């Protein structure tokens, strides 16, 4: 199961947990299951998130595959100038 | 896409890394280049926008009847001409509210109506005939004031997101973010020295020289065309289509040359208004902002209020870092880059205990938009100021203190992920060894430094490469060229094809020609669109080899491409004279038709970026005026495709940072109106204010790009605010905690320090 690490202010939506484990083959599946398991996260997911998978940042990359031991950080959707 | 021919350093480049002439240079210096306001169409009308004089007001009623009757007026539009197709919430709805005010005007300059007329003078007269009935409300423009209980409330339905439990009362605090790891309280207990300071930064404008301009045309069948200056015409197409309720395919957007963007042209302002006027008038309409409108009604960056606390052991190891970052982003939630300020603030350090809390706050100011590395320069100013002060307290050289605590490969970043290979240490070491660092200082001079970070990203790019019969190449890209990317695209194609640079021409295609291309932002274009160019060239090479194989009657895989020629791959393939690109292209009508390469993708693997800046400032003790006497930028470019452009990006970011640090600020009166909406009173640096900015390009290959390229457009604006503030502190003995470091502020600080008898904070 992929380990998903949440930024601090999302933790109230997971009962205070900083990390949750989600079974998912790719980012799209992970976000969908994350939203199903923790409905409070859905508004942020809808607003837009980027992810870091094993240290590499993906701005979108919904179909990016996840390994069973992948570490995924949820990040606000990247913007730039 | 992994780095080709790894380990890097072994690939020999022929074109990449050279400095050919820029392809757009002659057109720009001779006036042939067409910028946004240069577009014209038969029968076009002049569009003008009526803007709110109030910082905060309910719009009770808008009476346009007299304006509509004025001869020469062909259309008048208001909020009623923008029915909500967005679903009534979210960022797109806020964009709709920003391009044309609905129930409320949220800032001075907020659009409330627009006219299209046969001349500019008639349009101006018509604006005066529009009667708007306002109910003026109390306003707030300062971020700290906006957060106080009892502050004028912009939105009655705004309840701070990200706090537990959710507040029962509305406020101007839209969202709270928190990043970090470890236990900061425990970390501070281990510290021998703690420095805690509060900082403020004012809003700055990107200061692009070309005001926003758009020419729109919409036919009775609903199909429309738009010509405009923007960092992303595909974004403009999609957003305008959604706001106006038309199919995306019915709107074709062509991007003009752009006179600067720096993040400020990554959204829409006047484009939907021009289209709505054209729809109503059934004639083309051109809208061009004045400079005053650019200041009041486009998107500057956020103003901020920041608290930083950092603890160290007496041998110089940081034990904990804590920060609170309050950013106002104008009247709509999610517009301030508060979260990116918090995420980037401590990213250059290896920290066991770190916490960064950010607040996204709304105010009666224009809706902010990105400005090069959005959110990072202000946070960096605060953090690197405290770092410098800690180094002094420790008696350590600031650079050694930074090197000792620098993030490195394997560091858990302050925003979460663990770093792969990064170039921060290399930039710090290069700074320490740079001649600038050892040069003597004159009287009243001080030296400062800072290291900065930015994320960079890739995104969507789509490229087509066409080879006509003479063997020249046209590359069509969808990324507006705001920093010389056309030269970089040509160079990468020439490198891949094995042909000279001047055989390749790059154009920016309109939105009907290519698949979606993300906005030119996030330092992404040379990295992502450049990678698409390389892959499109490889696609074309495959097809060229296939034509050669068919000509020779051998299998395709028996042909290789080398230095612009198709050749038999080995002795077993047969003995054929190599075919040049030109020969294959010339024969193409008879060998299968036109030859083109194509690639579309969403690029990732941009890799994070670091820079270290060194700055010498001379402060006039009589006037408080600060002059930059020497400035050096050291940054990792991965691989510099066109080193002159890379240097230009380094220099440009530094110069914009210098302006922000020393002079630039949005000044509001008590009435909530902007007092300095023009370049006479909003002081950006000009050439005579600046020394030559020295640069040092480091090339630590990015493993996420075939040539090792890393984006370079944004990081260079991150360290200047802190580097300059540290230099001024070292020149004057006064630690300033508010920018800009304008002469009156610096003079006041010096005089107060004299009265207090020494070094202090101001």
From TrEMBL, chain A:
InterPro entries: Beta-grasp_dom_sf (IPR012675), Mopterin_synth/thiamin_S_b (IPR016155), ThiS/MoaD-like (IPR003749). Signal peptide: none annotated. Keywords: Transferase. One of its GO terms (molecular function) is transferase activity. This is Molybdopterin molybdotransferase.
Automatic annotation (TrEMBL), chain B:
The keyword Hydrolase does not apply. Keywords: Molybdenum, Oxidoreductase. This is Xanthine dehydrogenase molybdenum binding subunit apoprotein. InterPro entries: Ald_Oxase/Xan_DH_a/b (IPR000674), Ald_Oxase/Xan_DH_a/b_sf (IPR036856), Ald_Oxase/xanthine_DH-like (IPR016208), AldOxase/xan_DH_MoCoBD1 (IPR008274), AldOxase/xan_DH_MoCoBD2 (IPR046867), AldOxase/xan_DH_Mopterin-bd_sf (IPR037165). Residues 30-138 form the Aldehyde oxidase/xanthine dehydrogenase a/b hammerhead domain. GO terms for molecular function: iron ion binding; oxidoreductase activity. It holds the Pfam family Ald_Xan_dh_C.
């Amino acid at each position: 199961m992929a380990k998903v690490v949440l930024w601090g202010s999302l933790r109230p939506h997971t009962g205070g947990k900083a990390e949750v484990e989600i079974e998912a083959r790719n980012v799209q599946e992970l976000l969908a299951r994350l939203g199903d398991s923790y409905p409070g996260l859905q508004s942020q997911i809808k607003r837009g998130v980027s992810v870091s998978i094993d240290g590499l940042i993906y701005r979108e990359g919904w179909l990016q595959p996840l390994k069973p031991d992948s570490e995924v950080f949820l990040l606000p959707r990247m913007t730039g100038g | 896409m992994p780095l080709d021919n790894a380990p890097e350093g072994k690939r020999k480049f022929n074109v990449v890394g050279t400095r050919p002439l820029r392809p757009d240079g002659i057109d720009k210096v001779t006036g042939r280049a067409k910028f946004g306001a240069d577009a014209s169409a038969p029968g076009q009308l002049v569009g003008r926008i009526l803007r709110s004089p109030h910082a905060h007001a309910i719009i009770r009623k808008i009476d346009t009847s007299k304006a509509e009757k004025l001869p020469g007026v062909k259309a008048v539009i208001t909020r009623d001409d923008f029915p909500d197709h967005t679903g009534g919430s979210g960022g797109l709805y806020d964009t709709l509210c920003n391009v044309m005010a609905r129930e409320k005007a949220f800032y001075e300059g907020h659009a409330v109506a627009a006219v299209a007329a046969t001349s500019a003078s008639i349009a101006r007269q018509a604006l005066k005939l529009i009667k708007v009935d306002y109910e003026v409300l109390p306003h707030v423009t300062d971020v700290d004031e906006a957060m106080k209980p009892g502050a004028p409330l912009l939105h009655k339905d705004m309840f701070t997101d990200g706090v537990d439990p959710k507040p029962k009362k509305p406020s101007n605090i839209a969202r709270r973010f928190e990043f970090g790891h470890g236990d900061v309280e425990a970390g501070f207990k281990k510290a021998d020295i703690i420095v805690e300071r509060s900082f403020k930064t004012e809003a700055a404008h990107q200061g692009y020289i070309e005001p926003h301009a758009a020419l729109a045309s919409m036919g009775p069948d609903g199909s429309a065309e738009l010509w405009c200056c923007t960092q992303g015409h595909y974004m403009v197409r999609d957003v305008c289509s959604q706001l106006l309720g038309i199919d995306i395919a019915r709107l074709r957007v062509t991007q003009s040359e752009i006179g600067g963007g720096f993040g400020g042209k990554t959204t829409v302002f006047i484009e939907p208004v021009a289209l709505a006027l054209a729809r109503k008038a059934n004639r083309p309409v051109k809208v061009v902002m004045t400079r005053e409108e650019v200041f009041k009604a486009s998107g500057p960056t956020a103003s901020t209020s920041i608290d930083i606390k950092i603890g160290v052991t007496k041998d110089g190891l940081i034990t904990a870092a804590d920060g609170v970052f309050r950013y106002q982003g104008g009247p709509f939630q999610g517009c301030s880059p508060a979260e990116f300020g918090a995420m980037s603030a401590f990213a250059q350090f290896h920290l066991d205990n770190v916490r960064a809390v950010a607040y996204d706050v709304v105010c009666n100011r224009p809706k902010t938009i990105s400005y090069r590395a959005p959110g990072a320069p202000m946070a960096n100013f605060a953090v690197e100021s405290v770092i410098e002060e800690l180094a002094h307290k420790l008696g350590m050289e600031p650079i050694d203190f930074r090197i000792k605590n620098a993030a490195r490969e394997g560091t858990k970043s302050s925003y979460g992920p663990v770093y792969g290979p990064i170039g921060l240490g290399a930039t710090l070491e290069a700074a320490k060894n740079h001649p600038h660092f050892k040069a003597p200082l004159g009287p009243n001079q001080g030296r400062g430094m800072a290291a900065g970070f930015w994320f960079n990203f890739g995104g969507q790019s789509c490229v087509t490469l066409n080879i006509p019969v003479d063997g020249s190449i046209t590359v069509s890209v969808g990324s507006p060229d705001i920093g010389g990317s056309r030269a970089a695209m040509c160079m990468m194609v020439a490198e891949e094809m094995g042909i000279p640079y001047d055989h390749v021409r790059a154009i920016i295609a309109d939105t009907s020609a290519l698949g979606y291309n993300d906005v030119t932002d996030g330092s992404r274009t040379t990295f992502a669109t450049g990678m698409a160019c390389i892959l499109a060239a490889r696609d074309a090479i495959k097809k060229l080899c296939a034509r050669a194989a068919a000509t020779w009657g051998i299998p395709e895989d028996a042909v290789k491409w080398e230095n612009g020629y198709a050749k038999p791959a080995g002795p077993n393939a047969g003995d054929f004279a190599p075919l040049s690109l030109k020969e294959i292209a010339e024969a193409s009508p008879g060998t299968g038709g036109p030859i083109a390469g194509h690639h579309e993708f969403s690029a990732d693997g941009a890799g994070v970026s670091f820079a270290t800046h060194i700055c010498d400032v001379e402060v006039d003790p009589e006037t408080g005026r600060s002059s930059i006497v020497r400035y050096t930028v050291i940054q990792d470019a991965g691989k510099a495709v066109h080193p002159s452009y890379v240097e230009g990006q380094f220099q440009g970011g530094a110069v914009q940072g210098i302006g922000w640090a020393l002079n630039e600020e949005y000044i509001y009166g008590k009435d909530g109106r902007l007092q300095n909406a023009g370049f006479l009173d909003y002081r950006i640096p000009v050439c005579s204010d600046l020394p030559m900015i020295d640069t040092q390009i480091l090339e630590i290959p990015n493993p996420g790009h075939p040539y090792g390229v890393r984006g370079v457009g944004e990081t260079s604006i991150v360290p200047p605010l802190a580097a300059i503030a540290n230099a001024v502190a070292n020149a004057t003995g006064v630690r300033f905690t508010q920018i800009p470091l304008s002469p009156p502020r610096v003079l006041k600080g010096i005089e107060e320090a004299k009265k207090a008898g020494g070094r202090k904070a101001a």
